[in-house]
Write a structure and sequence with these properties.
Layout: H1 4-15, H2 22-29, E1 41-50, E2 55-64, E3 75-76, E4 79-83, H3 92-95, H4 98-107, E5 115-118, H5 136-151, E6 161-166, H6 168-179, E7 186-190, H7 204-208, H8 210-213, H9 215-219, H10 225-231, H11 233-239, E8 249-255, H12 262-275, E9 281-285, H13 296-324, E10 336-337
Parallel strand pairs: 3-10, 4-5, 4-6, 6-7, 7-8, 8-9
Antiparallel strand pairs: 1-2, 2-5
Helix pairs in contact: 4-13, 11-12
Length: 349
């Protein structure tokens, strides 16, 4: 807990977020996006019924360009799910410039062709299961996964599924990875919203603006300490047994210039995982801003996409080796696997 003074400073900064009216944030995020030209994907918006939140929920999906071709009709594809940040939605990745970089990652061989899904977890939900028709984590890990499996030709193996996210979505992806590691083989996140494990450490200023920030709606007022501790990645990481994460590939980064100072709290997570000898990759991006801020799109997103791609390629190579030894029968594959191109040399940043 050697970063605790910085935790307080970062959360004071977070409290200032409430100074911006919600309708102002929503209006900004809904600006019409310029048309995006994609060489390797098609993009569309869809909806599905989620019992976890009791309604139709929109989402975005990028399908490989040849997904509908006759030659690919039996091909199955790796799956990536992206979780957006606070005050964002399922279209934010597309409108903020993520699509061209996703396309570039495939173009450059960093990421194999895959099905890339943009979830919608509610603007301030923290992706937390908070009661009937407010279970936003179940929306992702149960309803959305089931819908995707029934709707698209996605691979079913853990090592061919990745969960990514940013800010609030990064917090959620880490939580799901730590508590349900059997679902995804790779978790790769950016500028994750990491809070102190004990809500008593929150500054008065943030608690006073809890309604604006959405904390009271999610955690109650006063804060439900058991829910808080059970849903914050730092608190979960303190209690986890490293062996439960066997096989999980973990990447996270944050910037030194993050306006909420999440770089420091992500450093704390890095130190905690190191102390537990949990394999992971952490990047502290010098001069990097928060989420879609400075340095993110040009470096960190491509780095995480390559990290995801490396996992898919390694799993595909291992599967091919097993098949060559006659051991692939009954491993859960459906149809023909999508090709996995070799990644180019270099660090990918």
């Amino acid at each position: 807990m050697h970063h605790r003074p910085h935790l307080i400073a970062s959360l004071v900064a977070l409290g200032a977020l409430g100074a911006l009216p919600a309708q102002g944030r929503d209006a900004r995020s809904r600006r019409p996006a310029a048309p995006v030209e994609l060489r390797h994907f098609t993009h569309e918006l869809r909806t599905f019924r989620s019992e976890a939140v009791g309604k139709e929920v929109p989402y975005g999906v990028y399908l490989p360009r040849d997904y509908g071709a006759d030659a690919s009709k039996e091909t199955t594809w790796p799956l990536v799910i992206w979780l957006h940040g606070m005050w964002e939605d399922h279209d934010r990745f597309h409108s903020r410039g993520g699509a061209p970089l996703l396309d570039k990652a495939v173009e450059d061989g960093l990421l194999p062709p895959c099905i890339f899904v943009l979830a919608n977890g509610g603007r301030t939900s923290m992706y937390i299961d908070a009661g009937p028709q407010r279970n936003h984590q179940a929306l992702v890990q149960k309803d959305l996964l089931a819908h995707l499996a029934a709707t698209f030709r996605v691979r079913q193996e853990r090592n061919q599924r990745a969960l990514m996210g940013i800010s609030m979505g990064g917090m959620a992806a880490l939580r799901i990875g730590f508590t349900h590691p059997q679902l995804f083989g790779t978790v790769a996140v950016h500028s994750s919203a990491l809070f102190p494990p004990d809500p008593k450490q929150l500054p008065d200023r943030l608690l006073q603006r809890a309604k604006d920030f959405g904390l009271d709606e999610v955690f109650g007022s006063p804060i439900d300490e058991s829910l808080w501790r059970a849903t914050n990645p730092l608190g979960i990481a303190e209690a986890l047994e490293p062996k439960t994460l066997d096989g999980l590939r973990l990447y996270f980064d944050a910037g030194t210039a993050d306006r909420y100072q999440f770089g420091r709290t992500n450093e704390q997570l890095h130190a905690l995982l190191e102390s537990k000898k949990v394999p992971h990759r952490f990047e502290l991006v010098q001069g990097g801003g928060h989420a879609w801020g400075s340095g993110f799109k040009d470096e960190s997103l491509l780095a995480s996409l390559r990290f995801v791609g490396d996992g898919f390629r390694a799993a595909a190579a291992a599967g091919a080796a097993l098949q060559g030894l006659g051991g692939a029968a009954g491993d859960g594959r459906v149809g023909k696997e999508a090709p996995a191109p070799q990644a180019p040399p270099g660090p990918g940043r």
